[in-house]
Amino acid sequence: MSLLVVGLSHRSAPVSVLDRASLSADAQVKLLQDTVAAEPASEAAVLATCNRIELYADVDKFHAGVAELSTLLAQHSGVGLEELTPYLYVHYEDRAVHHMFSVACGLDSMVVGEGQVLGQIKDALARAQELHTAGRLMNDVFQQSLRVGKRAHTETGIDRAGQSLVTFGLEQLAAGSPVDSWARGKKALVIGAGSMSSLAAATLARAGVAEIAIANRTADRAERLVQILTEAEHAENTENTENTENTALSARAIPMGSVADELTRADLVVSCTGATGLVLTADVIAAGVEGRVGAAEASAHDARRAPAARTTAAPSAPVAATSTDEDCPLDLASVPSGFSVMGEAAVAGMDAATLEQHAAWAASGTVDRRQGGRRGAGPEADTELIGALAATAASAGRIPERRRPEPVAEPPRPEPVLFLLDLAMPRDVDAAAHRIPGVRLVDIEALAEASADAPMAADVDQVRRIVSDEVAAFGAAQRAAHITPTVVALRTMAADVVAGELARLEGRLPALDDKHRAEITQTVRRVVDKLLHSPTVRVKQLAAEPGGAGYADALRTLFDLDPETVASVSRAGESTEKNVKTAKSAQNAGDAENRGPA
Fold it and tell me: In what order do the strands lie in the sheet with 2-9?
């Protein structure tokens, strides 16, 4: 059996595809159950985060495993297989282990080095164990990936190469300002009470927000998070009694039905739920912005800036040089502002006689036509031009004007009054919120674009070396463990041969005293051990090397070992290991119960 992973992430698929392919909690359970029920797979685990969906399985056939896992992913995600296939990636055996370790270290995250993924890997393993879809391989690779991830964060500065997704998102909202100074004093609304939402609430509390409202479909979880925030704030203020800048954090839980009303008060909203539909629609957000305190001042500020922009953008009308517009045959008062009196709007529908009168008046020099650097300017040129225009007006009924289109003044976008951070996949916040004046939205797609060119720290190279070393060590251990049942079966067979020969000797020499019988028994066993020592040690070394899986088969063939005997040894080992883990889990649970709630 071999490890196979089929999945898609922000590196292989656009956010829109990830959004549609996201798996609910129930869908993940059904996917695991269907995977282990399929023929190629015996174990399975699902790692589903905000920017990746990966299905891990222990399979006995590569091609059949890829086909089955891809089909199951498409089936349970609701995205057609033909549409999903171009975005899928496949890793097998050592490459699959390398990918898993890289994910655990944060090398494959949207924000390099973020540590949130470790908790998600732990949750994925716990889910597989609860559903009994995780066997020896899933337990080994997931638990080892957690150890490798912790080692990377402990021994290197990978944390400096990136931040958690929450911190990175807040930095994008702050638009270059320090998050602590930007968030200080703001009123925050956190939608959801899961791991990511809890991390967001804790981050905002440390940043100095004045108020946090927690909205969650399960009221108990929201109340629990409020209690944690309140206790943490109290403990921090107790330790920093000399800091006069400490302010009490107001944390409260609200029902999901009150989110729309809360938008009229909140300055900052962080949403990360498991909902399959939108939590905040564009209409709800727009209503919240319009109804919030201070919207009237923002509108007045916008109105004060807009006329100035329009006045600046509009071109100036021709200015009289030396006299007024008396005797002009055109009614200049009726000409729309921003149009030239010589333009199309002023003379549309003018008959030829009136146009000639206007031409004569213009030629008298009472109007500055701002000729500028026009070549051939002069009375004769003006007369010819006006005559041509008169002829055109007489035949066409209008003057074909040739002038640049007037610039359209765009109203300035008001400063944001509501900041939205959407960390959910599928998205919680309507993408149309980008177009609402006074709103700044940062979602997974925006974070992906912002992190594409993030600088890579030197510590990343060190983490990559750690991953490579750990993959090699894990592969060697797995291959050695693969041959161990065969070696145990060989030694068991040798022990049976020794026991049979000693029994035969007992029958042939019944008068043999105990001292000599013991000496003969020890001698025979020593001979067998010496004969088997070098081959078994060497075969373990060879099996630990890449491509060494075939040595177990060779050993079974050479010594004519019964495959069922080898399999029984493997099952016995797994049963013993499982009993040990169950005992440890029970002990830990008892210790936790004795300690009380954290």
Answer: 41-49, 52-59, 2-9, 89-92
Tell me the angle at which helices 514-544 and 458-508 cross, rounded to the nearest 10 degrees.
Answer: 150
Q: Point out the residues that are catalytic.
A: 50
Beta strands per DSSP E along 423-571: 439-442
Q: State the Cα–Cα distance between residues 449 and 268, nearest whole angstrom.
A: 21
How wide is the angle at C-alpha 316 spanned by C-alphas 311 and 321, nearest 5°?
A: 140
Question: Can you list the pairs that 354-362 forms with residues at least 24 positions away whose Cβ atoms lie under 8 Å?
Answer: 354/329, 355/386, 355/389, 355/390, 355/393, 355/399, 356/386, 356/390, 357/329, 358/328, 358/329, 358/330, 359/386, 359/387, 359/389, 359/390, 361/327, 361/328, 361/329, 362/386
Evaluated on CA atoms 310, 312, 314, 316, the torsion sign reads: positive
Tell which wins on pLDDT, 296 or 445: 445
Question: Is the pTM for the entire model greater than 0.85?
Answer: no
Q: How confident is the model at residue 308 (pLDDT cuts 50, 70, 90)?
A: very low
What number of H helices and E strands is found in the chain? Answer: 23, 10
Percentages (nearest 5) of helix, strand, coil residues in the chain: 60, 10, 30
d(Cα 205, Cα 226) in Å, to the nearest integer?
11
Measure CA 265 to chain center: 28
* Tokens coding 389: 């225009």
Q: What are 424's two structure tokens?
A: 């959910």
pLDDT at 492 over 80: yes
Q: What angle do CA 63, 64, 67 make, to 5 degrees?
A: 85
| Max Cα–Cα distance, the chain, nearest Å | 152
- Residue 290 to residues 266, 416, 517, 565, Cα–Cα distance (Å): 13, 12, 99, 75
Q: Which of 464, 405, 481 is nearest to 141 (CA)?
A: 481
Average pLDDT, whole number, for the chain? Answer: 78
For 37-47, what is the mean pLDDT?
92
Q: Is 59 in a helix, a strand, or coil? A: strand
The C-alpha atoms of residue 566 and residue 266 are separated, in whole angstroms, by 65
Interstrand relation of 52-59 and 89-92 (parallel, antiparallel or unpaired): unpaired
DSSP SS3 for 303? helix
Contacts of 279 (CB under 8 A, 6+ apart): 191, 259, 271, 273, 424, 428, 429
Residues in the chain: 598
How far apart (Å, rounded) are the C-alpha atoms in residues 117 and 108? 10
Burial (0-12, 13-18, 19+ Cβ within 10 Å), 167: middle
What's the confidence (pLDDT) of residue 565? 64
- Using 50, 70 and 90 to split pLDDT, how confident is the model at 367? very low
pLDDT digits (tens, 9 = 90+) for 248-294: 788 999 999 999 999 999 999 999 987 878 999 999 999 999 887 45
Looking at residue 183, its amino acid is A
